[in-house]
Amino acid sequence: MIGLLMVLGAAGALWVRSADIVTASGSPPAIPVEPVAPIDAASVPTGGTVRLTNWRCDGGSVGSAFATSAGLITAAHVVADTAGVELETGSLAPVAHLADDGVDAAVLVGDGTAPWYPIRTTVPEKGEAMAIVGYPAGGPKRVLTGQVIGTGNGAAFQQQAERVLLLSMSASEGFSGGPVLDADGRVVAVVIGVETNTGVTIAVPLADLGPMLAGVGAPQPAATC
């Protein structure tokens, strides 16, 4: 059965075909998984998440990004076709490099005002409590909490990532590029979209983005309008 992955991009809702969600073993995940103690949304650190505007030749649109020691991280589709990326502080944030092999992640050069999230280099287990932070519809910053459903093959969602993280909370447009945080406030993944049949949020684990975090990746020159 074919579903839809809604890519929650700064350029609007981009729709691509996707297979139904599968776990790493190839069987459909149970939704919901066993109940776990949720993260208290009020305790989630949000200062490291920033709103950005992607100015393209045909106008501007809003997405999310988050600060780490490796730079300001977002989803690559959030800054696609950019002529310039502007932070809510008014500073420009040039695209430093994209993840290799077309994986939906990018590193920007931030202005250093947002506190860094520590990076977790292991993929969370099924059932682990998680939170996501972003700017739905470009509005105020919001936190959603839930848990890990499992992992899936990126190709099943027409994504170049070998593995994607599947989360029980349902993100909306504007969350793309935002962080997935564990109960200790460590960032484990970057949000890239939602599977429309189930409302499951899809994210790329930072554990699989080692070269990008180390400064390796393809450049993205700014568009000339």
Structure in words:
With 225 residues, the chain is mainly β. It has two domains: 2-10 and 118-210, Thrombin, subunit H; 49-116, Trypsin-like serine proteases (Thrombin, subunit H), CATH 2.40.10.10. The chain has one helix and 14 strands, in the order ββββββββββββββα. It has one helix at residues 210-213, and strands spanning 2-9, 12-19, 49-56, 59-68, 71-74, 84-87, 95-98, 106-108, 129-134, 142-153, 163-167, 179-181, 187-195, 200-205. The strands form two sheets. It has a six-stranded antiparallel beta barrel with strand order 9-10-11-14-13-12. It is globular, with a radius of gyration of 16 Å. The model is unreliable at 9-28 (pLDDT under 50).
Q: Can you give keywords for this protein?
A:
14 strands; Thrombin, subunit H; 225 residues; six-stranded antiparallel sheet; mainly beta; 2% helix; 2 domains
Count of beta strands: 14
Side-by-side strand order of the widest sheet: 9-10-11-14-13-12
Radius of gyration: 16 Å
The largest sheet is: 6 strands, antiparallel, barrel
Oligomer: single chain
How many domains, as an integer? 2
> Strand portion, in percent?
35-45%
**CATH fold naming of the largest domain:** Thrombin, subunit H
Please, what is the CATH homologous superfamily of the largest domain? Trypsin-like serine proteases
Helix content: under 10%
Compact summary:
With 225 residues, this protein is mostly beta strands.
